[in-house]
Amino acid sequence: MTRAKRSLAAAIGGLMLVAAAPAVAQASVVSNQGLIRTSATDVLPGQSVGDIIVVGHDLTIGGTADHVLVVNGNVDLLPTARVDTVIDLGGEVRTLPGATVRKLLHATLGNPFWSGAIVAGLGALVAWMGLFAAGIVLTALLTVIAAALRESIEVPLAELEKSARRAGLSGVFVTLAVLALSGLLAATLVGIPVAALCLALYAIGALVGLAVVSVWIGRMIIGRDRAREVWKAALAGVSFIVAFSSIPIIGQILFLVLWLAGVGVTAEWLWRWRHRRKGHRAPT
């Protein structure tokens, strides 16, 4: 890793150190403390801080700082300023005679290349963080669902093992039916809550079915004998699903197929449960 990249990583790392504090720093010595600001900020002469991040506003430095990151704002370095690294994205850097800066990286949004690179980079970072968070939540949720259904999950697993293709086709038909019904209900003001309820029940059923699919995949990966505990198989299966789904296009197609299979598994499970109840109620 180059020195510039290490400096950028250290500056961004300051974002995690501390939450908002006053806009004007106190005129006292503060060592190794990260600061994040969403307002105009002054580092007074004689003050020493660690890493500083300012978003959407200007930063004036008259003291000493380690790494400085300013997004969409200007940086003014007074003659008494002593800074290791300054990174300014989208503003201007004004250095007065006497100021000392070891490394300076300046990218103005007026430049089409930098503008596009910054926007694309931030968008990709946000998208990646969103997918990462969603993957963690999905992994935990499906593992918990599978563990909660451990006493009865063998029934839908047996149906899935018999014909995964049939489960997928059932999921397609159920999904189309739910979408069509929800669309008709949403056409009227009174039917909107009912449509929302239908979609919520559909999502719950799909998650339950996806937990069953995760156990099925997990047993294929680590073996049935080594995955006797349902939650272990579910964890292995959903980890595979989340990891593979991060592949562009192919991963999303796979996730859609597994989602539909999960919907079909739940639908068939409920259908068979309903018929069993009718059989028990039938007169002998």
TrEMBL record:
Keywords from the UniProt entry: Membrane, Signal, Transmembrane, Transmembrane helix
Top-rank taxon: Bacteria
This protein's record includes keyword Protein transport: no
Xref: InterPro entries: DUF8173
Ranges of residues in domain DUF8173: 122-274
Keyword Transit peptide: no
Name of the featured protein: DUF8173 domain-containing protein
Organism of origin: Alicyclobacillus acidocaldarius subsp. acidocaldarius (strain ATCC 27009 / DSM 446 / BCRC 14685 / JCM 5260 / KCTC 1825 / NBRC 15652 / NCIMB 11725 / NRRL B-14509 / 104-IA)
